[in-house]
Amino acid sequence: MKPVRTPLFAPGIKERVMMKALASGADSVIFDLEDSVPIAAKAEARVLVAKQIDGVAAAGAASAPAVFVRVNSAATGLLADDLAAVARPGLNAVFLAKVESVEEVQSAAAALDKHEAAHGMKAGTIEIVVMLETALGVYRCLDLIKASPRVAGTCIGDARDGDLQTDLGCSWSIEGTELLYARSKVLLDTRASGSKVLALDGPFSDLSDEAGLIQDSRLSARLGYAGRAVIHPKQIAPVKQAYAVPAADVAYYQKVVAEFEAVEKAGTAAITVDGKLVDYAMYQRAKRVLELAKLDR
Questions:
Q1: How many angstroms separate the CA atoms of 231 and 224, rounded?
Q2: Alpha helices for the chain (secondary structure H)
Q3: Rounded to whole angstroms, what are the CA distances from 43 to 13, 61, 76, 196, 236?
C-alpha cells in the first residue's frame, strides 16, 4: 500500500461531504458504510459510494487521493452486499471493520477475487486494511495480517469511547497509558509480519481539542505509526504536522547516509557522525526515516 498520513473519513450517506473529502487535501479518503450510516440507509449509501468511486476512476487524475471504503463487519450480515457494491475500478482498499478471525479476512479476499474478475480488474488490485477494534482482534493481529496477501495495512480503533476501549473496559487519557499496550502490540505485529504493511492509528474523536490531537498524534508517531485516520478536514494539517519528520532529523540522517556510503566504499562499516556511532543498523534506520520523510513533501 502506498503510504498515507491522513485518510479522511466521510459518511457514505452524505454525497456532498464525500465530494468535499476528495477535494480536502487529504492524501486519502475513507468512504464509510459502517458506523456513520443508519441501518435503514445502508443500501442507499452503497449506491452513493459506488458513484463516487466511479467518478474518481473516470477522472483518472494522478493527484487524486487514494480511495478506501470502510465496510461493515462480517457479523452484521452486510459485508457481502457492501463488497459487491464497492469492489470496482477506482477503489484502492477496503477497511474491514471489527475483524477478529482469519476466516473473515480470507472470505473477504475471496469475494474481492470474484468482483475484480467480474470488472476485468487485475487480481489483487483492491487491498485490505484490517481494523483492530476489539480485544480479540488486537490479540490476533499478526494472524489477521498473514491471512491474505491482500492485507496491506492495519488500523487500530483506539478513539475515545470507541469499540476497543469499550471492549477492554479501560479508561482513556491524553497521556495514552491505558491503550499503550494495544497500540504497541498492533504496531509490533504489523512490523513483525515481514512485509511492507502500513500501520495507521485510529481517529482522535474530540474535534474541539487541537492541542490534544497534536499531543496524541506525536505519541503515535513516536511509537512508529505512519499516520492516522481523521474525521474532519480541519484535523488534516495538525496531523501532518505531528507526524512530519523534523527538519533537523532529515538533515542528520541525510548526513549519515552520505558519510556512511562514502566510507563503505573504502572498506569501513563503522564510523561516528556528530559524535554518534553509525554502522549498518544506524544506516538502515537513516534510510527508513528519509523514506518516511517523503510523505511530508
A1: 21
A2: 15-22, 42-59, 79-86, 102-118, 135-139, 141-145, 163-168, 180-192, 210-223, 236-243, 247-265, 280-293
A3: 9, 28, 14, 34, 30
Round to whole Å and give the CA distance between 9 and 91.
Answer: 15
pLDDT in tens, 103-116: 999 999 999 999 99
Helix (H, G, I), strand (E, B) or coil at 11: strand
Task: Write down the pLDDT at residue 2.
Answer: 85
**CA separation for the pair 46, 82 (Å, rounded):** 7
What's 37's DSSP letter?
S
The phi, psi pair for 128, rounded to 5°, reads: -125, 135
- Spatial contact of 164 and 182, defined as CB atoms under 8 Å apart: yes
- What's the distance, Cα to Cα, between the start and end of the chain in Å? 18
Burial of 85 (0-12, 13-18, 19+ CB in 10 A): buried
The span from the CA of 140 to the CA of 109, in Å, is 18
91, 55 in Cβ contact below 8 A?
no
Domain ranges of the chain: 7-243, 247-296
CATH number of the structural domain 7-243: 3.20.20.60
The predicted-structure confidence for 40-61, as pLDDT tens digits, reads as follows: 999 999 999 999 999 999 998 7
Residues 6+ apart with CB under 8 A from 295: 3, 4, 5, 27, 226, 227, 243
Tens-place pLDDT, residues 93-149: 999 999 999 999 999 999 999 999 999 999 999 999 999 999 999 999 999 999 999
